Amino acid sequence: MAAAPQKCLDNEVRIRSCQDESYLHGFLGIIGDLQKAGVAFSEDFCSLSVNQLTKIISRDELHHLPSILPHIRFNLLTSDDTAAILEHPLVRENSGSSKVIRKMVKKGKHNLKPRLGMTTEFLLLRDIGTGDLLYMNPQKRKYIWHPDIFPDSAGTAFTSDYNIYVLEHDRDHTGQLSMFKYNHAGNEFEDVGMSTVSEFQREYSDTSTDSRQSLVEVGQTLYYVAADLEEGSGWVRMRKYSRQTDQWQECSQLELEGTWECSAVLPCGPYLYFIMTSAMYRYDPSQDCWSERTPPNLESRHSFLSVVAMGTEIFCTDSDFNQTMVYDSESDHWKKLQGWPNRGNLGTNNWPYFFLLEDQLHVLLDTYDTTKEGSSTKYLVYVYDRSADAWRDLKAILPDTEYYTLGHLSSVARLYLPFLKGAQNLITSYAIRQDKKTESMA
Q1: Is 160 in contact with 269 (CB distance < 8 Å)?
Q2: Domains in the chain: boundaries
Q3: Which UniProt keyword terms apply here (predicted)?
Q4: Virtual CA dihedral for 198, 203, 204, 207, nearest 10 degrees?
Q5: Which of 91, 184, 191, 351 is least surrounded, with the fewest CB atoms within 10 Å of its CB?
Q6: Stated pTM of the model
Q7: 19-55 confidence digits (pLDDT tens)
Q8: How far is the CA of 75 from the CAs of 79, 340, 415, in angstroms?
Q9: Residue 334 contacts by C-beta under 8 Å, 6 or more apart in sequence?
Q10: Which helix (H) or strand (E) holds 424?
């Protein structure tokens, strides 16, 4: 296991490298130093493997074990890992320590985050037919089925710290939305106990208007956004959640004039952007105000935008993936990028979908062969090479079904792998069979 990066926690406390032989002895001293300094346990301790932990316990002779046990995330260990600790001679022979461990495993600490190095980024897609979820990382060739656990919601936010929040509709139809958060340890959504927020009602009753609700994060603050557009006018209304007061606060509204057919709202840096094909606005949370910005001015067969933000830039494309642009939020300038390469006879069934995976821009395309009759659907995944201004086909192999995304923005989550191992072999085997089938047809 590679050593965790060294990190200064306090002027009097410095973490020593896990590769240092003296670390096993020194770590126990660090525990005492941390307790004296009043400093919380560091990422170095939280990222220890089972082998490292048992070595520390064996050198410790149980003097510091009571201090160590409360900080071991037993509920995030697999059953094999837990058994390995319980079977360690020094633990097994000490009935008191064994009882403490078993009690903590049973009780669980569901508010803790997964261990470092034991999570993987996945794009989440939903099977149209079954409703099941597909967790996909094409670069690592991981395709994992999982039952759908997402509640019916007005919006889903995949936050910068890889938490997942949803605003769930009230089952009694009272118009109140409740906030739920994904629990990695329990592999389920739980009510986080935040105050409810009233659902925005549509300004226009015409069903032909575009009405879209979103949940987004800006500067670690959650915003509930509703865009209501019709011919001739439109509104963008927002409320933000205050952790200090546990209340939802009204934000400045954006009133639009003109005819709008689609929109996209997304955070970028410290701001929130509302983008349309020929207009764009920026919301500044510090001033609670909107300002007009330079729009992408995309020409498209359909009024559609696929957008995603990375750092201080926003990437945008049209319905056919012909025009791809990048926006520099600092200079308020758009620049054209390369579009779909080697299109050949392929057409698109649905809109392209931008997403970020491991800090790289990807696009998911639902394509078909224009020269063939009948169904010929094929999903393609490309990754963008910034240095070459080119898209590279990842040769992704998705199970043969139809999908749709969980939200308008990049629905990428960092998930805890031990909970997904049960389905991994099934999809890996499927991918291997498909590879062999492709080779035999070549």
Answers
A1: no
A2: 8-107, 114-148+306-442, 150-295
A3: Kelch repeat, Repeat
A4: -30
A5: 191
A6: 0.70
A7: 444 444 444 454 455 444 445 445 555 556 656 666 6
A8: 9, 45, 15
A9: 294, 296, 297, 325, 326, 327, 328
A10: helix 421-441
